[in-house]
Automatic annotation (TrEMBL), chain A:
Family: Belongs to the ABC transporter superfamily.
UniProt-listed InterPro entries: AAA+_ATPase, ABC_transporter-like_ATP-bd, ABC_transporter-like_CS, P-loop_NTPase
Family annotation (Pfam families): ABC_tran
Protein name: ABC transporter ATP-binding protein
UniProt organism field: Planotetraspora thailandica
From TrEMBL, chain B:
GO cellular component annotations of the record: plasma membrane
Stated name of the protein: ABC transporter permease
Upper lineage: Bacteria, Bacillati, Actinomycetota, Actinomycetes, Streptosporangiales
Signal peptide start and end residues: none
GO MF: ABC-type transporter activity
TM segment ranges: 19-40, 46-72, 93-122, 128-150, 157-176, 207-226
Length: 317, 238
């Protein structure tokens, strides 16, 4: 998959949300969110019902903020159809006309954008998502993954500076998923501003450099996910350790203040380290001093799932 | 007008089962007219009654409802409208295009079938066929605009449209003379009456009121729908 020179030559665009809130009656869906989405790939992460779609729809101009402002390159997004020259949107809903063929659907998008060579643009976009072959079939005969890809093609047909994708990997098989991940990474590397929402942590980890975490409508965290994890110094890190003498090692570890709890399990010992730096410095030295061989040391909560669970619990307290 | 929006809308309306809803009533009207002609039960009075009760009072509001709400309501309901709205096209232009499609469908299926049925029964006698065809055209266009507006305003457009057509125009209009003044059916009949010289016509609304009313309602509905679509909120699955 290669990007054309026209696709790589792009002006950087910035989506800015300033103290944005959205409520439905008494229900607050998004609460006082301020964030800036710049060039590169940003993952909007949160559990179902966290307000990701609401936020994304405000960025796409399909929902008015109840408070605050949403802008693209300084221009108001709501009730401004001109911004769609810069934005490509892949909604989560099956927003496709089943009676059109894939080709007709993407071509109609190119024509609606008023592109000078709509056929050429549509062919390129379909090629980009690997949908050239089935393009003449009606969309209603497509699998969910194929529909998703044809939606991506329609969103990319005018080579937008900003691409917003709502749960884009839903319904895709692993091969299609990898293909789209690669495409998103390439577009991000080419300087495009890409935001995609997901509740699947592995997807965000694999594609996004930047993560915005939304929990219960609030902006819970922002930054590189490993960075977010490191910033949470108030949270104990859990390690699973296997050694030549688990009992002796456990006794030695609990004597040091860097560990708050040590428990014996069938697989070895589990250590809750309250001082991450000291624990990782101490463990090999301690093992050497008491003549215990370490077979395995694995952090059990370094994945995004743990980060996420922690942020949720912190947000609800 | 936007040709791509019109193309997609025509395909949605004519390429699916919905076309049968548009075809059914006109075919029934022409069938009845042909049957009356065949069995010799036709005369000018019968033609006027059939045109008025079936064409203007029944078929026209239903065709207006099917076409007016059908060009936009289902797309808003299932979210496919996003394909059109996420483009650099002014939303009033999208509404205007959809209105033109709805109006053309009501004209093709409503006004043409009314003319054909009238012509089968009484040929060009007293201008009955021409009068009802033009009245149907004007009324159908107004219905299309009003029901398109309903399709943008509410997800219950069909229910509200049926209530309007049956309860307000059918029931209230039948018993309360004042209500007839605010009835698209009456405005359409007023135009038919103006063109036809038949003695069997009777209208409660003057042409001097009916024509401006049709124009104001049609243009007002399309403008309102355009503004409403600019502020249409669409949310995701959450």
């Amino acid at each position: 998959m290669t990007m054309t020179s026209a696709q790589t030559a792009t002006r950087h665009s910035v989506v800015e949300l300033t103290q944005v809130s959205r409520w439905y009656g008494n229900v607050v869906a998004v609460n006082d969110v301020t964030m800036t989405i710049g060039p590169g790939v940003t993952g909007l992460l949160g559990p179902n019902g966290a307000g990701k779609s609401t936020l994304l729809h405000m960025m796409a101009g399909f929902l008015a903020p109840s408070g605050g402002t949403a802008t693209l390159n300084g221009q108001r997004i709501w009730r401004n159809h001109e911004i769609y020259r810069l934005i490509g949107l892949v909604p989560e809903k099956e927003a496709v006309y089943g009676f059109l063929t894939g080709w007709q659907f993407v071509l109609s998008a190119a024509r609606l954008h008023g592109l000078p060579s709509p056929e050429e643009a549509a062919a390129q976009a379909l090629d980009l998502v690997d949908m050239k072959k089935p393009k003449d079939r009606r969309i209603e005969t497509y699998s969910k993954g194929m529909r998703q890809r044809v939606k991506v093609a329609a969103a990319l047909v005018h080579k937008p500076q900003v691409l917003l994708l709502d749960e884009p990997f839903n319904g895709m098989d692993p091969r299609q998923r990898l293909h789209l991940m690669e495409l998103i990474r390439e577009l991000g590397a080419a300087g495009r501003t890409i935001l995609f929402s997901s509740h699947i942590l592995e997807e965000v980890e694999r594609v996004a450099q930047q993560i915005e975490v939304l929990v219960a409508g609030r902006h819970a965290a922002s930054g590189d996910y490993r960075e977010i994890r490191r910033r949470m110094t108030d949270r104990p890190h859990l390690f699973r350790v296997r050694s030549s003498d688990d009992r002796r090692l456990a006794a030695a570890l609990i004597a040091d203040p860097s560990s708050s709890a040590v428990s014996m399990t069938e697989q070895g010992i589990e250590v809750q380290a309250t001082d991450f730096r000291r624990f990782t410095w101490l463990l090999p030295r301690l093992a050497r001093d008491i003549d215990v061989h370490l077979w395995q040391v694995s952090p059990t909560d370094e994945d995004l799932e743990s980060v996420f669970a922690y942020l949720i619990s912190r947000s609800s307290t | 007008m936007n040709a791509v929006v019109a193309d997609i809308t025509y395909r949605a309306m004519l390429g699916r089962k919905r076309i049968w809803l548009l075809v059914l009533l006109p075919v029934a009207l022409i069938g009845m007219a042909a049957l009356l002609r065949l069995i010799g039960g036709w005369d000018e009075h019968t033609a006027v009654i059939l045109m008025r009760t079936f064409s203007i009072s029944t078929m026209l509001p239903l065709l207006g409802l099917i076409a007016g709400t059908g060009v936009i309501g289902p797309e808003i309901e299932d979210g496919t409208i996003m394909h059109l709205l996420a483009k650099p096209i002014s939303r009033p232009v999208i509404v205007l295009t959809k209105f033109m499609v709805a109006a053309s469908l009501v004209a093709a299926f409503g006004a043409v079938s009314t003319f054909v049925a009238g012509y089968i029964m009484v040929r060009d006698e007293s201008g009955v066929a021409y009068g009802f065809a033009l009245g149907s055209l004007a009324g159908g266009v107004a219905y299309a605009a009003v029901f398109l507006l309903l399709g943008v305003l509410t997800r219950h457009a069909v229910t509200i449209g049926i209530i309007y057509a049956l309860v307000w125009e059918g029931l209230v209009g039948g018993y309360v003379p004042g209500a007839r003044t605010l009835s698209i059916q009456q405005w359409a009949t007023s135009i038919a009456d103006q063109i036809s010289s038949s003695a069997f016509f009777s209208t409660d609304v003057k042409l001097s009121f009916a024509v401006p009313a049709l124009i104001v309602v049609t243009i007002g509905s399309v403008l309102w729908a355009g503004q409403r679509l600019r502020s249409l909120s669409l949310t995701g699955e959450e």
